[in-house]
Structures are given as structure tokens and as C-alpha cells.
Amino acid sequence: MKKKILSVIVISVLSVSALLAQVDFGIVAGPSFQNMVGKDNGGDKITNGLIVGFHAGVSASIPIATDFYFQTGLLFSQKGSRNNEGLLPTKASDDEYHTTTRISYIDLPLHLLFRPEFGSGHILVGFGPYVAFGVAGKQEVDYSPIMYEQKIKFKSNLTVEEYWDMDNAYYRRFDAGADIFAGYELSMGLWFRLNAQLGLLDMIPDVDEYDNDSFLKNTGFGLSVGYNF
User: Fold this and answer.
1) Which residue from 80, 104, 147, 172 has the least number of CB within 10 angstroms?
2) How many domains does the chain have?
């Protein structure tokens, strides 16, 4: 019996080791251009301004078929927008009221990667969902001549008092959406890709006693540079 258990353990360890030997682990970083788009309480489209953020983290590509991989990892990323008035969103053409919102997230990508050989390297084409968890952030308000900074707090439902809180800006903590990207990997393991991201969840919390039909969703695009070990 002990020999059977030992054999199972050895086979399991060898199987895991063989699988890990096929997994490409890497690091990734790059700039991103983020926005939050949606509609105001009157149903008019909101087009905010872009902010420049960044993303950085680790990745893992697991082979599932010839030239196809399941790609995941963990990324620290910045999202937000300019000229977003939080729960009272204003259009980017507003010359009197400006805000710059920056929210930091931990992103978990869940992508299908197509990686065929091309020349001395590989073409990279992929898509799939992501989920994100907000960890911190701040919102700078410029209502000339008044300027102040608000701390980002994460809540799904607000009281009326929190709605009018001038010291804090409230957003939902969880985000989710879809990614699409394309790029090229050199033979040495260095790769570059362009990526776009579309958030699918409303980031504005509900407010007690208020009918709030406005919504904002994260969106953006960027350049990623990575290296597979």
C-alpha cells in the first residue's frame, strides 16, 4: 500500500514538473491610455479625456493545443479619466470643472493566445476576459480657483451623506471586461504587443433615495513589452 501511495506521489510530481516545463513564465510592463465613458443622468453620452497610466506584472502561458495557449497572470494597472465628475459626470468640453481620476487595480487576465511561428519568432494574437480588483486611488479636482484632492473609496451603495462627501470619491471596487491584443515575439523571448480593453461593469455606486441613471465604464488601450524566461 505504501509503495502504491509513493508511486502516485512520484507520478504526480513528475506530471506537474513536466507541465511546468512547458509553461512560459514572463514579466510585462508598459504605458496605457485610459478613459471612463458612459452616459450622464439625462441619457447624454459622456466622452471624457484620456489619462496616461501604466501596467506591470507577471504572466504565464500554458499550452493547450498546437500554437494555442491559455495565458494568465497578475498585473498592477492604473485606470481612470480626466473630466469625470464621479457621481455627477461632466463632459470633457466643460471648461470650468476638471477632475483627474486615477484608480489602481490588480488585474487577472484570462486569455486565449494564438502563437504561430513567423520568421524567427512568433505572431501573438489573443483575446479574452479580465477581472480586476480596485486597491487604491485618488481624484484631483480643479474648480478654479478651488483645487483639492479626494481619496478614492470603494463601495457599491452610498448614503446621501456619502454622495455629497467632498473629502472622498466613491467607485465600485470590482471591474470586469474584455481584452484583445496583437503583437510579435522575438526569438530571444522579448515581445511587444498592442492591446485594447473594454470594461463591461458600471463603476458608479447606487445612491439611497436617488434615481441615478448615469454610468461609467473603464476603457483603454496601450503598449505592452514583455520577456519570457
Assistant:
1) 147
2) 1
Strands (E), 85-156: 98-109, 111-114, 117-118, 121-143, 146-154
The answer to whether residues 111 and 68 touch, using CB atoms and an 8 Å cutoff, is: no
- Mean pLDDT score of the chain: 84
Phi-psi map region of 35: left, alpha, beta (phi>0 left; psi -120 to 50 alpha): beta
- At 63-111, the pLDDT tens digits run 999 999 999 999 999 999 887 554 444 444 455 677 889 999 999 999 9
CATH number at residue 86: 2.40.160
Question: What φ, ψ does residue 56 adopt, rounded to 5°?
Answer: -160, 145
Question: Is the distance from CB of 179 to CB of 125 less than 8 angstroms?
Answer: no
Q: Tell me if the pTM is above 0.90.
A: no
More confidently predicted of 210 and 23: 23
- 17 within domain boundaries: no
Q: How confident is the model at residue 15 (pLDDT cuts 50, 70, 90)?
A: very low
**Helix, coil or strand: residue 18:** helix
Residue 54 falls inside a structural domain = yes
Domain-located, residue 14: no
pLDDT value at residue 218:
94
Range of the domain at 55: 24-228
Phi, psi of 140 (to 5 degrees): -95, 130
- Report if residue 73 sits inside a domain: yes
